[in-house]
């Protein structure tokens, strides 16, 4: 009985210790391991999320960086372009001066005695003809002025001329009413303020009716040999652009640019000679480049290549 009792007692003890082990060791261990596993799992998940976030963040930052880089690059390019342009303009001015010098020599050789194409016998008549030549060819002006100057040879006669009579004579020219009014007013101003004579300054001339800077330059250069500027008419503007000494077609800017690159002593002849060149060789829409003496120094801007 004692043996059986001992056996049962030890069995109970074993059970107790087993229970203790399970309760205080195995179960906490299991729980711990479960927690660890759960932690690892959650860590993995969070890692995955972070990596996704990071990837997203990278894209955003890349985009941001890209958008940031653009404005940085642009000014760099712009400053580089500006430098090139300014360098070019410096080089171009020197080159253009040399080119204009060669063109002036070529023109002088081809047209040594080029003169104003408007028929006139006095500064007054030249002034009238130049006013009449606005929006009109020199040939058409020359076709009416002999009759006009026969009847009204000086400012004194024209100042008293009836409007209708002048209109009738110059009727074939464009804007004949406005032109008649202007030349009569201008003649009256000459009689009233300058004793019938044509003044010799740009300032005084441009105050007269119908007289702009171009007309004043023509009169001062041709009648008085005063180089007050470069006359830029339709031929001069067109040919200078073709040659490449100017890039604009605005007459005022063309004149300013020409005054920079052409020596002052050449200002008057430059225009006269180019007008002749425009009528004889560099004809609008069909320039005769093959027989042009300026071809070596001409850019032939916008023209097709020669075959
Ligand atoms: S080469 Fe041709 S475009 Fe140039 S000036 Fe002579 S005719 Fe005119």
Would you mind describing this structure in some detail?
With 307 residues, this protein is mainly alpha-helical. Among the domains are: 1-31; 123-297, Endonuclease III, domain 1, CATH 1.10.340. The chain has helices at residues 2-110, 123-132, 138-151, 155-160, 163-169, 176-194, 202-205, 213-224, 234-243, 251-261, 267-280. The protein is elongated. Bound molecules: iron/sulfur cluster (SF4). Iron/sulfur cluster binds at residues 239, 242-243, 281-282, 287-289, 292, 294-295, 298, 300, 303.
Report the biggest beta sheet as strand number plus sense, adding barrel if it closes: none
CATH superfamily of the domain at 123-297: Hypothetical protein, domain 2
- Separation of termini? 137 Å
CATH architecture term of the domain at 123-297: Orthogonal Bundle
Compute the average pLDDT: 82
**What small ligands are held by the chains?**
iron/sulfur cluster
Percentage of residues in DSSP E strands: under 5%
Q: Which residue ranges are poorly predicted, with pLDDT under 50 across at least 5 consecutive positions?
A: 50-89
Reading the helices and strands in chain order gives HHHHHHHHHHH
Discrete helix count:
11
Strand elements, count: 0
What is the C-alpha radius of gyration, as a whole number of Å?
A: 47 Å
Shape annotation: elongated
Strands, helices and their partners?
Elements: H1 2-110, H2 123-132, H3 138-151, H4 155-160, H5 163-169, H6 176-194, H7 202-205, H8 213-224, H9 234-243, H10 251-261, H11 267-280
Helix pairs in contact: 2-8, 5-6
The structure holds iron/sulfur cluster (SF4).
Iron/sulfur cluster (SF4) binds next to helix 9.
């Amino acid at each position: 009985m004692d043996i059986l009792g001992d056996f049962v007692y030890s069995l109970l003890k074993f059970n107790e210790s087993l229970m203790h082990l399970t309760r205080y060791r195995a179960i906490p261990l299991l729980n711990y391991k479960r927690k660890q596993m759960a932690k690892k799992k959650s860590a993995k998940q969070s890692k995955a999320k972070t990596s996704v976030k990071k990837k997203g963040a990278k894209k955003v930052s890349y985009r941001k960086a890209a958008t940031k880089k653009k404005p940085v690059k642009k000014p760099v390019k712009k400053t580089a372009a500006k430098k090139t342009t300014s360098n070019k303009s410096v080089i171009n001015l020197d080159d253009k001066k040399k080119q204009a010098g060669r063109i002036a020599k070529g023109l002088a050789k081809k047209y040594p005695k080029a003169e104003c194409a408007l028929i006139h016998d006095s500064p007054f008549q030249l002034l009238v003809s130049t006013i009449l030549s606005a929006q009109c060819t020199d040939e058409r002006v020359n076709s009416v002025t002999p009759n006009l100057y026969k009847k009204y040879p000086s400012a004194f006669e024209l100042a008293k001329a009836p409007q209708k009579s002048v209109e009738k004579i110059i009727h074939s020219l464009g804007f004949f009413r406005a032109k008649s009014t202007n030349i009569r007013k201008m003649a009256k101003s000459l009689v009233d303020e300058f004793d019938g004579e044509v003044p010799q300054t740009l300032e005084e001339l441009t105050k007269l009716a119908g007289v702009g800077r171009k007309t004043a330059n023509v009169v001062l250069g041709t009648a008085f040999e005063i180089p007050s500027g470069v006359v830029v008419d339709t031929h001069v503007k067109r040919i200078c652009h073709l040659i490449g000494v100017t890039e604009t077609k605005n007459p005022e800017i063309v004149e300013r640019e020409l005054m920079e690159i052409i020596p002052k002593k050449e200002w008057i002849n430059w225009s006269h000679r180019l007008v002749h060149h425009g009528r004889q060789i560099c004809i609008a829409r069909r320039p005769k480049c093959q027989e042009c003496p300026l071809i070596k120094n001409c850019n032939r801007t916008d023209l097709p290549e020669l075959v």
